[in-house]
Design goal:
Layout lengths: L3 H10 L7 H12 L6 E12 L2 E13 L5 E8 L1 E12 L4 E14 L1 E2 L2 H9 L2 H4 L8 E2 L5 E6 L2 E3 L4 H6 L2 H10 L30 H8 L101
Parallel strand pairs: 1-7, 1-8
Antiparallel strand pairs: 1-2, 2-3, 2-6, 4-5, 8-9
Length: 316
Amino acid sequence: MVHKRTAQLYKEAGIEYPLTTEDYGLLSFERETRNSPNSYRIDQIYRVKHIDKDYIIYNQTIISRDNPGNRKTATETVGTHQEPQFQKRYDPETNMHIPIAVDTSDVIYDIEATKDNIESILNGTYHQKIGEEDKPRTIVPYATNFVLQNGNQKFGDFTRDEFVNRHFDDLLFKATNGYYPRQLKPFGDNNVGINNEIRKEEPPLLSKEKMYEVLEIEQPKKDLLVTKHVEPQERDELNPYTIRGEPFTSEKQKTKIDNNYDDKVDEEGDEPYDVTDKKIEEGKTGFEVKPDKPLVKEQDKHKPLKTKRSRTTKRV
């Protein structure tokens, strides 16, 4: 049915309001079911984001009976109306600017999305709460479709519990990603979350010093955590085997190094290199490798290098 505010603006402008298809259907329904009570079925309810708030729009079916007792229905959209912006022209007789036609219309949302408003719509007490009716409406049980609308995008498949208790941004996150974010935004009361459970505030994180103080334990001394650091230029070129500047103390670390030559003989029959241990002096790190033979064997200058023959192919 035409909204009161819309009808008032057309009346003040002196322009007849153009009835819509929905208006004609509701007028016919009211004439036929004048003396019968109405019951209401909430078919679909929307939460619509507009600027920085979200609002409620819902589609309902009005059910009643005519004089012979036949069942009659009519559909209606509630929660929004249009406010026309008129095109005006100067009238020299009245010395005023008079509206002559509708230039454009602004969409105005009437119901702010709150837990109380959503529940009262679903329970049939909203119009009584705002003073339009004297008693609650009779709501017919129905599988209402809960829809989230963000611009031109519409998302469904929400439960009533989610739709009533979740923040719009959290519902939109689930609709696009398939799951809720880790940190949920409060909707309605700051302490109330899903299923009206009180959210427990998480304690703030403690610093290390504060943690030791709360637990009443002694902090570890920094001297125990300091290790000796050896600069790269101070290391012996023949002794690169150091571990974080710490001296080797275990027996396993004092064993010989497998340098890919120990206990092996190369193809030309050379003997394996000797790796001799050296006692670790106090305050020094690692150990030295003293080969009996040079690590790199000199190439015989008079002996030609062996090269692989390249295969040649003949074309057939």
